[in-house]
From TrEMBL:
It comes from the Bacteria. InterPro entries: Glyas_Bleomycin-R_OHBP_Dase, Glyas_Fos-R_dOase_dom, VOC_core. The keyword 4Fe-4S does not apply. It holds the Pfam family Glyoxalase. Keywords: Dioxygenase, Lyase, Oxidoreductase. Residues 1-124 form the VOC domain. This is Catechol 2,3-dioxygenase-like lactoylglutathione lyase family enzyme. One of its GO terms (molecular function) is dioxygenase activity.
Length: 126
């Protein structure tokens, strides 16, 4: 459904340390910067990009917004969470674990990146 997601980042170096670690825990390669200093994580299915806002104002996190990353196991979701905490992220929501609801059993882990964007690693339980 999505071709790409672009998030604002106030510090591209901090963003790269965070996303290289968290996405690396899920098996993705490090990000690459373009000649404008934007950071890209490219996969066959889509692109995650981080950039300072083009209007020159500070990046802000969207209230009510969450970007979710698929994890193939609860252990990978935990590794993602730990990598984020070790690289400038902060915990938010409940501790990583199983949640049950109308969409079935999900293993969820939540973080905020160094710019405050809310993220989630999600594993659909069998």
């Amino acid at each position: 459904m999505f071709s790409h997601i672009m998030l604002g980042a106030n510090d591209i170096d901090a963003a790269q340390a965070f996303y290289d670690a968290t996405l690396g825990a899920l098996g993705y390669p490090p990000g690459k910067r373009d000649d404008r200093g934007r950071l890209f994580y490219m996969t066959e299915k889509g692109i995650l990009a981080l950039t300072p806002p083009i209007d020159g104002k500070p990046a802000t996190a969207g209230n009510g917004s969450t970007i979710g990353f698929a994890a193939t196991s609860p252990e990978l979701a935990d590794a993602w969470h730990a990598a984020g905490l070790a690289n400038g992220g902060t915990a938010c929501e409940d501790a990583p674990g199983v949640r049950e609801g109308g969409l079935g059993r999900l293993y969820l882990a939540y973080l905020r990146d160094p710019s405050g964007n809310k993220l989630c690693a999600l594993h659909r339980m069998g």
